[in-house]
Structure formats: structure tokens, C-alpha cells
Amino acid sequence: MVNLPVMSPFKKRYAWVQLAGHTGSFKAAGTSGLILKRSSEPERYCLARLMADALRGCVPAFHGVVERDGESYLQLQDLLDGFDGPCVLDCKMGVRTYLEEELTKARERPKLRKDMYKKMLAVDPEAPTEEEHAQRAVTKPRYMQWREGISSSTTLGFRIEGIKPHCAVSALRVDLPPRLPPEEAPSGGRLAVPGIQRPGRYRCSSQILSLWAHTWPLTISAHLLQKADGSCSTDFKTTRSREQVIRVFEEFVQGDAEVLRRYLNRLQQIRDTLEVSEFFRRHEVIGSSLLFVHDHCHRAGVWLIDFGKTTPLPDGQTLDHRRPWEEGNREDGYLLGLDNLIGILASLAER
């Protein structure tokens, strides 16, 4: 689950965007570099322990719990801070996104869910059985296992939950100096920026703005007048095969080899850290995501987020995180998914 503030480096205004999960979980902190997430005891417990673990640099920094309007919120590092019009991808890790105890409780007290039947029907009208069609409802265990099976969770150990493309710059005001110093002027003494000959308002992309900023840092002053949010896409429920996932990431990075290289390096660093993390060995990590963020300036980062379903194991028990899950062994397949994710991005980098 992730609600994301999309930020402009020109004006600090937040437009809240949700890629997946329940609405209303996040709110602005009122302090630059921080966001507030509605508190839950399991996530507070995990974040507090992660701050003292090897994984500290792989998760959002946790700054304690604060009260707002009678509710408790986790005060977290804003992972989008420092990015310009960030592209964001939420990748849910593991071979399942439900706890074993959820499955057990749902079986012991089965309840027909009309809302889950409707969700199933919207994806595949043929998925419900004749009995489920007659009841116009399904049980939660049935829905949860069906949901994992149609995605890449069971086959690859992760699934893509949603993507937020970059925020395009839709209007700029450009101020040019009356004369360029000789040492800055290109051949002929003219400013070699296509389409920009005089001060005024222009429509262009943030990538072009970045090019200008790097080429003419002393001669162009560009002011953002309007920023248009890219629309979110969450239509990945049936993205299942390796090739389908490769195509999604190919579209996400838009051919930016430097961003792809940075993502790969970061994922390998995260994997190395997970393999030595005491916290990771002793917890069942369910429903957690890897959050990918990059922008047109080739800045890129990946972080582990969402620990509301991460639970400690009984004393003395540890997980491999790669062994196949069988009910009762509590394996989550997290490292299996990360291995596959690294392999997919590596193959994309070779194309």
C-alpha cells in the first residue's frame, strides 16, 4: 500500500496519489522531507527495530509517532523528496500477500464476500464457479489464492501493483538575459535552444528543461507555471509472465540506461543487506513492497516499504525466504522474488 506525494522542486505543493491499498492512510507532515502514515502497532514495531538493523538504509527513516486530529501517525522519510516529477513503481514482494493466520481464520469462520466476487468478475467473468455465480459471492481464502495465481506472485515471487509516470511540465516562463557573455555564447552568439528565441511562455517537457539547466546554467531562468500529474496505472492484475514484466519495466524506465543501472545496483545492495539482516531472518515479511523512484535527471532509488503484515517468528525459528511455501512453514518467497526481479532487470539491461 502506498500513497505518494508528487513534488515540484519549484513550489512545494503536494498532490496526493495512490498506487495501491486503502485511501486516506497518508497526510502531509508540514515539514519538508517527511510524511505521515496512519499508525499501526505491527508497522511501528517493525520500523523501530529496522532503525537498529542492517536494513536501516534500505527503508524510509522512522522519526517516531505523532498525534494529528486525534489519530496516531508514523513520521516517515518522504522518499520522493529530491526528485523532480518522479516516476514511481510499487512492486509487491513474495509468493503470497496474506498471512497464514488470515487463511486459517477465514477457513474457520468462512464468510461469503460479495465485494470480492465483484472484483473477481471484473478481471475474469469465467473465474467464479457455478456455485459462486449463484451465490454472487466468494470466500476470502478463495479470492486471495485466486488473486495470487493470476499475477506473477506465485510464478516469480513478486507482482507489480501500480505505476505513476513522471509529472510533465506543461507550461514554463523563460527569462533570457539580453546578452550572453562571450565565453558562454555558442557559435554566432545565439542561444542554441530549439524553439526559445526570446523571453516568454513555452510548453515543453521536463526532460528538455533538464537539458537547458545543464547546458545553460547561467543564462536561463525557467519558472514552472503549471505541472500536470501523469495518470496512475494499476491495471497489472494479470501481468504474470516474465516477458510481460520485462515489457512493463521497459516502459517504466523509458530506455534510460543510467536509471536502469542504478536500479540494478540498488537491488543487488538490498539483496546483500537482506542476507545479513537479523531482522529479516526472524520475520515473516508479507505484503511489503519495493518502491522504485526515478526522474529525468537520472536520479533513482529503491526502498522496502509497508510492514503492517510483517510478523516476528517464534523464538529460535528463522526463514530462508527462498524455499517454496507450504502451509505451516511461513516461508514468504521474498528473496525468490528479488532474485527474479534482479534477473529480469539484468536481462533488460542487456537488450
Describe the structure.
- Strand 5 and strand 6 form a beta hairpin.
- The model is unreliable at 1-18, 168-174, 176-180, 184-194 and 199-229 (pLDDT under 50).
- The protein has helices spanning 41-50, 100-108, 114-123, 130-135, 140-150, 153-156, 206-215, 242-253, 257-274, 278-281, 334-349, and strands at residues 2-6, 15-20, 26-28, 34-38, 62-68, 71-77, 87-93, 112-113, 138-139, 158-164, 168-175, 200-202, 221-228, 283-284, 289-294, 300-305, 311-312.
- Strands 3-4-6-5 form a four-stranded antiparallel beta sheet, covered by helices on one side. Strands 10-7-15-16 form a four-stranded antiparallel beta sheet. It has a three-stranded antiparallel beta sheet with strand order 12-11-13, with no helix packed on it.
- The protein is an alpha+beta fold and 351 residues long.
- The protein folds into three domains: 2-95 and 157-166 and 231-349, D-amino Acid Aminotransferase, Chain A, domain 1, CATH 3.30.470.160; 100-148, no CATH class; 168-228.
- The chain is globular and about 55 Å long.
- The longest helix is centred in the C-terminal third of the chain and has 18 residues, at 257-274.
